[in-house]
Each structure stands twice: as C-alpha cells, then as structure tokens.
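Note to self: keep these together.
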Amino acid sequence: MQSLPSTRRALRHARRALSPREQRRHAIAVARRLRRTPLFLHAHRIAFYWPADGELDPIPLMEHALTLGKTCLLPILDRASNSTSRRRLQFVRFRSGDRMRPNRFGIPEPSARGRHLTPSQAIDLIIMPLVGFDERCNRVGMGGGYYDRTLAFLRRPKRWRHPRLIGVAHECQRLERIEPRAWDIPLDAVATESSLYTPRRRKEIDSKGALI
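Structure:
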C-alpha cells in the first residue's frame, strides 16, 4: 500500500496529465451537475477557489453563480499563516473584473481586503479542492491543513449548520478507501465529471437517501 505522500504525488500527476480539452470538459460537466442541486440553488454566499496544479476548475460554476446574483468568495492566505500551527484561510468577495495578485504559492487571490472579508461561519456553501477522495466523501488534501484548520469549528457537536462543503475533482482522483483522521472535516458531497457522491450514513440524508 502506498504511503500518503506517494498517493498524493500519484494523484497530482494523474490530474496534471489531463489535456486542456479534458480539463475544460470536466469543469463544464461538474458545473452542470452542481448548479441543479438544492445546496447550490439555496446558497446565497458561496466560496470557490482558483484552480492550480491540475485541480478541477470551478470557475464555470462560479460564473453561473455570479449571473444568479449570488455572493461569490475566494480564499486568501491569512497573514499569520506563515506559522504551521496558524495556517488558515480567509474569504474575500469576488466580482468579475476584480484585481488579483499571486500569493506565496503563485495562486491568484483577490487584492481586496478589509470590508470585503466574510467570516467562514457566514458562508452557506464552500466548493473545495482536493487531491483524493473516496465514495464516502472522505478527502485527501494537499497536506497543508488550511481548510481543516479554517473549518475546525464544524467539529463542535451540533453547533454549526453552515457552511456546507462540496469537494470537486476529476474521477481519476477517486481512491478505494480513505481512513479519516481526527482533524479531517467531512464533506457533504463530492462531484466529478461523471458522478455525484454523497455519504450514505450522514444524518442530513432524508429517507430516500438524497442529500442534495
């Protein structure tokens, strides 16, 4: 069995190996799949991300959300996140034409700060990147722990109902099984170009097994 770092490398290589045409086709397919779901339709504030390293591109879905008048947000690195123990994200409102600047990883972030910041607890839905996932919607991230630390408040029993979390990925990133760790934040769903995965034993699932 591969170690987690080896698994990450293999999955990142697989998604980077997709052609630009495949990347675009997958992004459009995921956007079409998610824009019909109640979680997306009922959300007013939605956080997306700027794709890098072969990640599935959520921009087509964000563009659709903007046309619906939804508030769209992008993550930025917290200024104190140079310290490993304080690696967290903040979320900034994004509108078409806003100025962007690269963060220390070279990923574009909105230049705006201050009043444009939105607390993660006030977000209805977060569209999250991932490196790997399984059918139970467990997630393997890049290893930095940014999302896990930012969303740690969701682990407090029954205190928070928002934000809801949907991971998006290419089908080639699916693993047979992932053993979640104590600090991992569970996802409500994972969408790929060919399927929408939902955890079957989550309390939010109704009697027909339909989560979103």
